[in-house]
Each structure stands twice: as structure tokens, then as C-alpha cells.
Design a protein that fits this description.
alpha/beta; Rossmann fold; two-stranded antiparallel ribbon; 8 helices; 29% helix; globular; binds S-adenosylmethionine
Amino acid sequence: MSLPMKIRLCNLDESVSPRFIQKTFTFENHDGTHALMVSVPEVLGSQYGMHVWPCAVVLAQYVWTTREKIQRKNVLELGAGVSLPGIVAAKCGAHVTLSDSAEIPLCLENSRRCCELNDLHGVPVVGLTWGEISPELRSLPPVDIILGSDVFYEPEDFEDVLVTVSFLLRRNPSGQFWTTFQERSSDWTIETLLNKWNLRCTDVPLDIFHANKKHLAGSTLPGNHSIQMMIVTARTKT
Ligand SMILES: C[S@@+](CC[C@H](N)C(=O)[O-])C[C@H]1O[C@@H](n2cnc3c(N)ncnc32)[C@H](O)[C@@H]1O
């Protein structure tokens, strides 16, 4: 685990008041009318969990287009950071829990700030470090949908993410892990790890949920990034 390095990269100096900017995303109905606006606070000058990543807009769009399926479902977002997909899920009627590394409290604080900004009161924000089967992870109710946007960005963490996902899917074998990732290297693969942890994945083409665009939800973030989506489920015994 390289967390100390990540904290340095995050440039989170607790002695300096963070400077925020507010970003707004607008999700549309099929007829192009504006239907849901979500605002998120980003911390200027910092990295990782303190600003929205392109993958988050794509996953949020998937949540939005499948919103009827997630109503009243238990949804957990891993590595949520600014939490755009989780916030959209909560706005669409899911019972959402947001999480980020237990070792980055400022990130968790920003997730709480994001809930407040969107009038979401009572959304739990918990510290869950990937790969750790902690009391906080064990005490979650069975999770129907796990969300993870851009959580596969450090190859050394891939297995830790899947350990957490596999633990949750063992507790609810009909659960699903919805994840978007950015292709940063053609050498990176999780296939062997999926087999090891008894998981399987299905690709979700972006065009089926109208996310194969440079502009999405009123944002230019997706741009030219090569983003993909997959759904990971527990492998059933044959
Ligand atoms: C690339 S950012 C993506 C943030 C957000 N999901 C998005 O797409 O906008 C990766 C996120 O994973 C979190 N993270 C990094 N290492 C982690 C770990 N070991 N356990 C849990 N979360 C972690 C970071 O704090 C950050 O919020």
C-alpha cells in the first residue's frame, strides 16, 4: 500500500483553509429537458478525491439512466471522493452510503460537504480502506449496488479494491459492482484477479446510456478520455 505517498500527492495541508469551487452537473431526460442538477464542492489545487474525475460523470450518467432500478436499493460508493455518482443515486431514491479511505479524513469531510450542498441529510459517510475487512465494512447492511468511479488507477491497489468488492458480494450474491475506469495503460488488466476472487465482469458500452460523448451532464470532463464501464458480479458455481 502506498497511502503515505498518496496523501502527499493530495497536497492536503490541514493548516491552510481549503479554497473551494462549486461545479454543477445537469442530467437530462430523453427529450433533452433538464431533470436533475447536482452541485459538488471541489478543493482547488488538490488531487484525487477532492475533485470530480471524468469517470465519475460517466458513472453518474449510468446511475441516472438506470434510476428506476436503484430506488430503495442499498448503494455503497467506494473511493467516492466528491461522490457525484452516489449523490445522483441518493437523489434518485437509493439508500446511499458514501465511503473513502479511512486514512484521508479530509476526503470524507468533503463527501459530507457535498451531501449538505445537495440537501441530502442523513447519508452516512464512512471510512473504508480497500482490502481491509474492518468493523465499519462488516457493519454495513447487505449492499445491492456498489459504485466505484476511477478506483482502478493504481495497479498495486487493484486487488485491494476487489477484496472489498468480493467480501460485499459474498454477503449479497445478487449484488453488482458498477465501475468506470480510464484506460491509462494497455498493460493493466484485472482478469486474473477477477478469477482469483471468484468474480466475473460484463462490459457496458457507453453508447447504450448515451455517455459516449465529450460533453456529458453539462460538463466537458469526459473529453477525449478513454473511459470504460463494467459490471462485476459474483461468479456462480456451475
Ligand atoms: C481517482 S480518485 C476518484 C474519486 C471519485 N471516485 C471520482 O471519480 O471523482 C480515487 C479515490 O479513491 C480514494 N482512495 C485511494 N486509495 C484508497 C484506499 N486504499 N481505500 C479507499 N479509498 C481510496 C481516493 O481518496 C479518491 O477519492
